[in-house]
Amino acid sequence: MRTRYEDDAAHEEGHQWPLGPQPGSSKARGSVTVVMVGVIASLLILTISGLLLASAVLASHRARAAADLAGLAAAGVLMRGGSGVAACDLAAQVAAMNHGRIADCLASGTEVQLKVAVLAGVKGVGVATARSRAGPSPGGAP
Question: 131: which DSSP letter?
Answer without folding.
Answer: E
